[in-house]
Amino acid sequence: MTDFIEHGAQSEEASENGTGISTVERAQMLLDQDKAIAAKVDQGLELEEAVDPSNREFGPRAHPEQVQMRVAKRALMLKQGIAPYPVHLDVTDRIEHVRAEYEGKLEPGQETEDVVGIAGRVLFLRNGGGLCFVQLSAGDGTTIQGMISKKEVGADSLKSFKQLVDLGDQLYVRGRVIASKTGELSVFATEWAIAAKALQPLPALHKELSDEQRTRKPYLAMIADEATRDMVRRRSKVVSSLRRTFESQDFLEVETPMLQTVHGGAAARPFTTHMNAFDIDLFLRIAPELFLKRCLVGGIERVFEINRDFRNEGVDGTHAPEFTMLEAYQAYGTYDTIGDLTKQLVQQAALDAFGSTKVTLLGGEEYDFGGEWKTMTMYGSLSEALGEEITPETSVEHLGAIADKLGVERDEVENHGKLVEHLWEHFYEDKLYEPTFVRDFPVETSPLVKAHRSKPGMVEKWDLYVRGFELATGYSELNDPVVQRERFIQQAKDAAAGDEEATDIDEDFLEALGVGMPPTGGMGMGIDRLLIALTGATIRETITFPLVKPLV
User: Fold this and answer.
1) Could you say which residues bind Mg(2+) 1 here (predicted)?
2) Which domain holds residue 150?
């Protein structure tokens, strides 16, 4: 108990929000209000008498009147011996299945003897004299009408329905399938029960949710917005498609550590944490690459992982601090073979999730992932844009002068490769609309990539651009431990000079490479970005529960 109190005190101090009340204090206040309402209901007061619309006793930050009324209904259910959150109900049928089976098959007023037990969220209520109508929604948005009549369920049950059921409640209805007099497919109830009492009201379903509501309360967006539900389902279909494609190519899926003693596998600023048991600082994974390559050393020659990565960097329409990454490695492959696999993964995902490689984006325009994809080289396309030849021998000073002349932003820690990539991005990054592989990068920015077979100073790497942003990257992977050590040392020097994205030296990985990793093609692709490419959404719309800054 002492630990809890100390932790609570710390939470209070850390959670001060400028209103004079801490998180713990407000939670306790709301609980006290819940108990006060329940006590009044137990004393026999009417629901309207149990609530305090002006919040005179508990203050303006307590429950609003509508929530108080729902709390009172919950208390009344408990008083009457009705479970507001029952463990089990005899749900034998799903709303979407009932609608699919009977849609268009019944004439207005026609009744069947088929009995179903369904449950869904209440989206509409109309309480009449002896007959009440309720619209129930399944999780996918499919709706059906429930009809509760005095004749069928009895006067007491109908009265209880009118008194207790609110919009947003999860409701169970059992009865015969019929068509109402207006032709609406319905379940004519012989019994009903609240499956889960909603204490918070739903947003106005006839109004579009704000971006703030969608981002901070995605569960409301799933209820109210078909597009949000579709995104969740399409994301699942895309991930399932990727796994099936890998399985068809004999790849094995593995899991690698999220907590790492050395951050590596990508050029990114990591999140740090501390492990009390070992008393060591750790990094949240920025990429699974170095562990997946250890699998190749161990003999798993085709391996992939769909994983959570964490990068302590900026947030915008295509970047999030926590995101889902796909990485795959194929022994005896190259950046050419892994590029072919990547194209197959993307095209098959489009087919499986949307039925075609030609998809319709949120703005209404069509985008085609089919056919062959364009290729271009980084140095060749940059030379064309500048009107002069740029090679790996072009000096840092000359590249810097070009960058300054063009107004290209420069890093504090610069080298040839970074300047080449910054200049290339200035001309091309947001202009490559159709799927395009950009090939053959500077060696300085790709410490885990094999040197190009015929172009000194370059590495066998491609980036895949779609609709003006980078979707995936692929390599002929570096497997020479001596060269890898040299690259790591240069990265460590860059880090010491102030480059926060540079990686550290991973001696265990170098030892693994020393055991022998076969020639390998590897790729990485953001799942969130793949959904952006396929739908036209922003990254926050593709992530089901995006990280948001807490409200003060």
Assistant:
1) 463, 470
2) 95-196
